[in-house]
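Quality-control log, excerpt.
Job 1 of 2 completed; input and output follow.
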Amino acid sequence: MSNRRVEQPIQYEPEEACPPLVALAVGFQGAVLVLAPTVLNVVISFRASGLDDTYVTWAVFAAMLICAAITALQALRFHRFGAGHIVLAWPAAMYIAVMVSAVDAGGPETFASLLVICSLIQIGLAWWLPAMRRIVTPVVSGTVTMLLAVSILPIAFDSVQSLPADASTISGPAIAAATLVASVIVTLRASGRWRLVAPFLSLLVGSAVAAAFGVLDGDRIANADWFGVPELPDLGFELSPGGEFWALLPSFAILTLVLGLKTISDGVVIQQGSRRRPRAIDFRRIQGIVSVNGIGMLLAGLATTLPTMANASYSLSLINLTGVAARRVGFGVAVIVLFLAFFSKFAAVLLTIPGPVVGAFLMLAMGMLFVSGWQTILRDGLDPRRMLVVALASALGLGLHGHPIMDDLFGDELGGLLGNGVTIGALVAIVMTVLFDLFGSRRSRLEVTLDMASLPAIDEFLSNLASSLTWDDRSALRLRSAGEETLATLLVQDDGQDNGQADANPDGGEHTRLRIVARPQPMMVELEFVATTRHENIEDQLAYLTEEAPIPTADDLSLRLLWYHAAAVRHQKFHGVDIVTVQVEGAPEAART
């Protein structure tokens, strides 16, 4: 389940308290990981937007403060906010292209206003995640991620030529090539704790080559104060949004949903890599990660800087190399990054990195982002329908990006804003996904109370379903038994946890409602049980059951029977709702003759 296999076993799980000095030492290593991308992503976006050094310096300072705060909040976990895990955060490179468009169209005020509005979308996604999970799917997220990487690459190549006017024409490509070669060598050869400083090593090589060409300016470092707060630029908001705001809002909204889904994926990976033994994913923690990420976007809008995102690969690298997954480390990372944010001389060193080095860093990052998008698509497998979604969304997104046909349809100004390939591809992917989900299978539904008195209605519902599929008697019995044991398991656990209070309904009713959705597939039926319960995760309980175990007790009898009848069981626990998905295999009547 996790890519954690070597180096250090888990010494401290997230809930376990590690010594403060250990938390601070590991936190320092985590801060080293996030510093380079934090500064470089902000510098790239603001320089590409044409904003002056006052904005750039302030944006870097604000981004470091926000990343420190978000990393600490992710470790805290309060009610529906936070993950209770080590979640390293830095500015999201996927927003570079849309930021450039927003600043060009309406200035930094428009960009800040769009971030504030979209932060509510991200927080809403966390609260309504159970309903959104079938719309913003891994196929949609992966397709948009690949389109984003392609759309940002031109900015990276433009940065290669970002040099003084008197610089030689060969210096930019030579510096970028040296940085890329160094990145590849360090990535392939570095091991252990050297991986933590791998990005800095490639930046040092690129900067050294830039110094050899005479394009490295050290005046910024010499003139910078040692400690302090940078000058505050003229920040503001678009209080009366114009056409540019409304034209860009769909792009920002879709990108925010994609960022939310990527955060969900990263949260799943971080959970899997933070335990000594595998556990089922707790989606309440996932909702907490997305909620805090929405707070980070709100703070970024108020400060006019890039929004934050979680990064699973760097978080896991830190856990793998140290063996420490205690959430206290998140506070250690926050303390170190907060200190360095006020260390102006250090920020000046990073801001002096030449454009070709920054461009090379962005090329590699966008290449990795493209691969990450493709991996996301492949995570659930590629059937013909998903292939069609990816193919059509990618073709239209790439083909219509900046195409004159959009200007002909909507005019020069509005067409330039609406002709964003990421927006087009995302809309196509979402619409096709919704249509396939609505018309792709013969769904049937039943709503009852979460009570054993509902068993006859459930049994009749499943019997009719098996009959409509012309399943044989044995398969029909397996389907009905799986439904009965799932109901019994939910009831046993709910009664055990609530001490007889399972009748309380958050909506004011006498009983908890149970909704069963059946989605027939070839030779199989997927049953989805949706209810409000407060029991332990069924997946975790099933993991402890073995065929050689002692005689079952009354409490786990239903679990064992469910394990026997079902081909697969998945339990997703959200705030306020539990979703148990049971897959039951069957055969038609003719198959037995």
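Job 2 of 2 completed; input and output follow.
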Amino acid sequence: MTVLTQPPGDGDGARIIDEPLTEALSRRYLAYALSVITDRALPDVRDGLKPVQRRVLYAMREMRLNPENAARKCAKVVGEVMGGYHPHGDQSIYDTLVRMAQEFSQRYPLVDGQGNFGNIDGDNPAAMRYTEAKLTAAAMLLLDGIDEDAVDFKPTYDSQDEEPVVLPTGFPNLLANGSSGIAVGMATSIPPHNAAELIDACLLLLDNPEASTEQLAEHVLGPDFPTGGVIVEPKASMIETYATGRGGVRVRARWEKEDGGRGTYQIVITEIPYQVKKADLVEQLAELIENKKAPLLGDVRDESAEDVRLVLEPKSRNVEPEVLMESLFKLSALETRFPVNMNVLDARGSPGVMGLRQALQAFLDHRREVLVRRARHRLGKIEARLHILDGLLIAYLNLDEVIRIVRYEDDPKAKLIEAFALSDLQADAILNTRLRQLAKLEEMELRREHAELAEERDGLMTMLASDKQQWKLVGHGLKAVRKVLGPDTELGRRRSIFEDAPTVDADAAIEAMIVREPITVILSDRGWIRAAKGKVEDPSELKYKEGDKHGFVVPAETTDKLLIFASDGRFFTIPCDKLPSARGHGEPLRLMLDLDDKTAIVDVFPHRPGTKRVIASKEGYGFVLPEEEAISFRRAGKQVLNAGAKGAAFALPATGDHLGVIGDNGKILIFPMAELPEMPRGKGVKLQSYREGGLRDAIVFKAEEGATWIDTAGRTRVWGEWRDWLAKRAAAGKLAPKGFPTSKRFKPK
């Protein structure tokens, strides 16, 4: 395959390369993937920013949009960023600026937005021509020292200017504000934390570089979301997450009970989980009520103003508040799980997953480098100033001669250099000195400045030669930042709290709200399901759609869970109170569950706690299944039996001590139930061996009661000689006795 790497008709074709298309595509796709990973999606572990965020902050600083100055139009900021640093769409830049200004998105907002910047309901912000912005104090902490050679700069996309590779970063912004992004083949998801707690952990690392994750977790208690909420993740789980850099955090809405008088009450939600849109949450709760999926909830109202206030009314005053909330936590976004995947770029630009300790150490290493670079920059300034002061002091010591040279010499600069061994800079400084600065007091001020700068120079040189002093100064800087972002400030106080999830059986409470009545579940041959009140005495009187017929008729109660066993080995669960009524022909089961037309229904029965079932495939494999293992309210059901190509055969109650099986070949085998293993899922063990065909039917019975079968006339026949067919499991068996139904089944299907 030929790959053309230049425009057609451009020269003699010297740049046309013959290479396999797969190699050309893979090489170019790798370049694209690396570009997305390093220049777009993943944050830098040192400042916690992606390139577009860093460019927005730097451009705003260059525009002098400091906290004490007036704000400017966001359109002006976006244009500056796009024109000078980030040659991409203006909407992506504005979206970044907006997010950094939203208090419900950023734990420590880096942009002070004025105007409509969206809200927690999910409404969009106003257009950039209407909004204004400037930097916050937290952003200034990230930028502090950027003019003092604290970080490296690189050329911008058009090489007309320079931009910082990373910001100096006065506090651990990566963990403080968190980050999220999707790259090519990898993603990142970092929750926000409390800056004061992170600084305390950094100070611990400075005192004890070998501190473990458990010790750091004594300071970093867990995420601190800008929207608050209640974190119910176990401490051990969070320590594991911080150690590996991967895991998750369960966060719930914060709520309180308000008494309404006469025994009534209502639930008021004051904080919702992070990144949940309040309007969507209200809509979700309303749908649960409408679809009768939340039987304990009566009504939901949004009474929010500036603060969140969602009011939930229970269906009955007899419902416990804790039970109501536990049921809603399971059904709605009132509880979410925030994924943690601390995938970041290290100082060399390589992506990787870091734990808490690694991320904090990388930040501290960066702060030390910034400290050293700023100190060297300051040292250079001091050396230059001392050099000038040395020349000025020489001039004061020889003032009369200096005045004579300046007044009478044709080239005073050269003469000064020759007479006093001065440099060009020193000579220029002397010649630029004003007459009024030749006073005695001015000389004393110069000597004082020289002494102070010399002392500062000596201190800086001592610090640069001592690793211990460098780390000590890093700690002093962090302590100063902690005063700005500390827990005693409104910005720094912890918002998310920690609680243990209460052990409340919400399912039992929901069932208690359902009126217990007898019903009959009717499932037709074509899969239409309905529930008739009471007991159906004569199933032959039931009516079906044209072309449809009798399938299953199962007595149950409204509080039961209906288990449906499919031929592919899956179990489905439907609450009986959710079944359509029998006034019509019901509803197609395949609309309620993920069932295709090729999958048949093998059995239908109500769940009975503590019951066990013998399930088997037509290939002749099976095991004993506790019914609790079959329950799953997912539309896709729960895969329990590896049914093989032939499908599932039966699911019989394990109410006896012997199992009799019969194959398509008409041979019967009986063996003790003790030979069957009890399993939650799998293929099972071989029940009977076949040369051809498979398993047809089975019966479970007690030895003292004996085995039976039902003949074609519907009469129960006692099988007195069943012990003659008793053998070990997996044997071939013997032909059925005389009089056994020709259908080769113990009971008619």
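Post-run check on job 2. The mean pLDDT is 90.
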